[in-house]
Design a protein that fits this description.
six-stranded mixed beta sheet; single chain; mainly beta; 14 strands; disordered N terminus; four-stranded antiparallel beta sheet; 44% strand
C-alpha cells in the first residue's frame, strides 16, 4: 500500500511540475537548483529525498520530534525556506485529524542536497493527550513559494491539538 502511494505521489509531483512550469510567479516554486547549469533532478522534489521522524529532547511543556531529510548522490542541491505547510499526520494510513501550525522565522534560506541534510521540528504540547501517528506528510517551501508534491516522513510520534512545525534548518 505504501509503495503504491509513493508511486502516486511521485507521479502527481511530476505532473504538477509539468503543469506548473509557468506558475513560479504565482507562488509555486519549481525547486530550482541552488547552483545553475546542472541537468540533475532537484533534491527538493518529494520523490528525490527521504524523511525520517525521530524523538528529540523535550522542553518545558512540549514533546519534540525531529524530521530529517536526506538526499542521495545524483541529485542537485536546492534551496528551502520556512516551515513545511499542509502537514498531516496518520497512523497505519488513517488520518489523525490533527493539523499543525508553524513557528519561527519563515525567511531563512538553507541549502539541501546530497551531503547537506536538513531538519525541522515538530513541537507538541505535552499537557494534552497525544494521538499516535507513524507518518507525517507535508509540502516543502522554497524562497519563491511551495515545491509541488507531498513529501512523507515515517517514524513513531504522538500529536495533539496545538502542534507546531518549526522552520527547516541545516544539518541532521
Amino acid at each position: 500500500m505504501r509503495t503504491n502511494r509513493k508511486i502516486a505521489v511521485t507521479l502527481a509531483a511530476t505532473l504538477a511540475a509539468t503543469a506548473l512550469t509557468g506558475a513560479a510567479g504565482a507562488g509555486v516554486a519549481l525547486a530550482s537548483a541552488a547552483t545553475g547549469g546542472s541537468a540533475a533532478p532537484s533534491a527538493c522534489r518529494p520523490a528525490n529525498h527521504t524523511a525520517k521522524i525521530t524523538e528529540a529532547a523535550g522542553s518545558a511543556g512540549h514533546r519534540h520530534y525531529r524530521v530529517t531529510l536526506t538526499a542521495p548522490r545524483g541529485y542537485e542541491s536546492c534551496e528551502l525556506a520556512g516551515s513545511p505547510t499542509g502537514v498531516r499526520f496518520s497512523n497505519h494510513g488513517s488520518d489523525s485529524g490533527v493539523t499543525a501550525g508553524s513557528y519561527g522565522s519563515q525567511e531563512t534560506v538553507v541549502t539541501f542536497g546530497p551531503g547537506r541534510p536538513v531538519h525541522f521540528d515538530i513541537q507538541v504540547p505535552s499537557g494534552r493527550p497525544g494521538t499516535p501517528a507513524d507518518e507525517a506528510s507535508f509540502t516543502l517551501q522554497a524562497p519563491g513559494g511551495q515545491i509541488p508534491g507531498t513529501s512523507v516522513a515515517e517514524g513513531r510520534l504522538k500529536v495533539a491539538a496545538g502542534t507546531l512545525i518549526g522552520p527547516v534548518q541545516r544539518g541532521a
